[in-house]
Amino acid sequence: MSTTxxxxxxxxxxxxxxxFTPLPPNPGGAGSGTVAVTSIDVVNTGNANTVVVxxxxxxxxxxxxxYLLDESQGGSxxxxxxxxxxxxxxxxxxxxxxxxxxxxxxxxxxxxxxxISKVNTLNWGQTVSNARINAIAPAAATIAFPDAYNGISxxxxxxxxx
Length: 162
Fold this sequence. Notes:
This protein is mainly β. Helix content is 2%, strand content 41%. Strands 4-5-6-7 form a 4-stranded antiparallel sheet, with no helix packed on it. Strand 1 (2-5) and strand 2 (10-13) form a beta hairpin. The radius of gyration is 15 Å and the shape is globular.
């Protein structure tokens, strides 16, 4: 399966990119006004795919978020993960997601950058405290993992760039 996105829609291909079908529209209100999709990631959990999407809102003091679509649940609606008052410019599943159930996001409160993680059904930042980079609000970012990444470890190493 491959996935692609516009600023408001996510599309799925099951034939190596020859054709695409739309997933449910407008995660987090994307495409309506000033909200746009900034990144997507997909993980196969054995029986189905789960898609995660990050969004931003360009209005001052208005925020995007992180939204999940679980195809094993019928895949009919995006679920808000309630990351808080952040514009989220990048979100990814841990490469070891099926074991550590970790999602990592790079987000901004329009002044500072935060690297935030969510494990299982716990709240964002509950297992590992948010990392903060003062006085920088990124427009784009990326996250990279070493081959042996293990989000369960207290010494988990990954890299962020913006």
